[in-house]
Amino acid sequence: MSEADAAEARRIAGEARDRVRFEEEALELADQVYRVARRLVGTREEAEELVQDTYARAFRSWRSYTHGTNMRAWLLRILTNLNLDRGRKIQRTPDLQPLEEGDYYLANKVAAAEGEQALEQDQVVERLSQGGVVDALSEVPHDFRDVVVLVDIGEFSYADAAQILDVPIGTVMSRLHRGRRILKQKLAEESLT
Amino acid sequence: MTAHDPGCDKCEELLQGYLDRDLAPDEVVVAEGHLDACDYCRRRYRFEENLRRYIRLSASERMPSGLMAKLAELRDQQPRAL
């Protein structure tokens, strides 16, 4: 075998190894990817389909992933793009949302219903039913919800969320803050009325 | 015991940034200085911290069994160079 052939053989073998490593790492993240997907779409079936489409694309375009960077964010970037392509209308962020309540709103409601001391108990939040959380989240408008899901459920940093959604970091922060307020308002409506 | 000194309003504004560890150092001083002296706000910060944890746990749903096998199948269907 010539020197050139040997070098080519080594290159091919190295690439095959990189690919297997990529695939293993990606599959290990599937549960975490699914958890985020599940809250971005309405049903379990849609979430499963979206995750499968994401992995099909990821496996095809594995070369565009830079080894050593955040693969979970890379996968979620594909997933959120696919989710937009699947016909979710790009919602203009409404400039004139009804003014949401402040950050103490839900705590104030709980205190009014159960007394100020209830806020001292760690379990008090459990009285907001689990289903109430999921329903309330699904009612938060998309643009706000995407950011809340990525940061508060997916535990992504502001910077990762900005990259995933392809928006400036300032937009992530403002949508996150407003999204959380809207969520608390919905929780108060659902759980404490 | 109701809040409504302006310090409480400011503290409410700083809540999310504080829990996200995203405040400037001088804002952290303002928030912590107020929290040291104010039960009303301290309870609400604690409630918010618990709430965030509860939201994360409640909204988090495990991957359905069977999905992993489908993903592995997608991997195996990819064409490989010889």
Number of distinct beta strands of chain A? 0
The most extensive contact between chains is: A-B, 50 and 37 residues
**What would the average pLDDT of chain B be, to the nearest integer?**
92
Secondary structure: number of strands of chain B: 0
**Whole-number count of domains of chain A:** 2
Structural features, described:
Chain A is mainly alpha-helical. Chain A folds into two domains: 3-85, Rna Polymerase Sigma Factor, Chain: A, CATH 1.10.1740.10; 105-191, Arc Repressor Mutant, subunit A. Chain A is 68% helix and 0% strand. Chain A is elongated and about 80 Å long. The model of chain A has no long low-confidence stretch (mean pLDDT 90). Chain B has four helices and no strands. With 82 residues, chain B is mostly helical. Chain B has one domain. The chains are: A mainly alpha (193), B mainly alpha (82). Chain A binds chain B through residues 12, 15-16, 23, 27, 30-31, 34-35, 38-39, 44, 48, 51-52, 55-56, 59-60, 102-104, 106-108, 110-111, 116, 119-120, 122, 124-126, 128, 130, 133-134, 137, 149, 152-153, 155, 158, 173, 176-177, 180, 183-184, and chain B through 1, 12-13, 15-16, 20, 22, 40, 43-44, 46-48, 50-56, 58-64, 67-68, 70-72, 74-75, 78, 80-81.
Summarize the topology:
The complex is a heterodimer of chains A (193) and B (82).
Chain A: H1 3-28, H2 30-40, H3 44-60, H4 71-85, H5 105-114, H6 130-138, H7 142-153, H8 158-165, H9 169-191
Helix pairs in contact in A: 2-3, 2-4, 2-7, 3-4, 4-8, 5-9, 6-9, 7-9, 8-9
Chain B: H1 6-19, H2 25-37, H3 39-58, H4 67-77
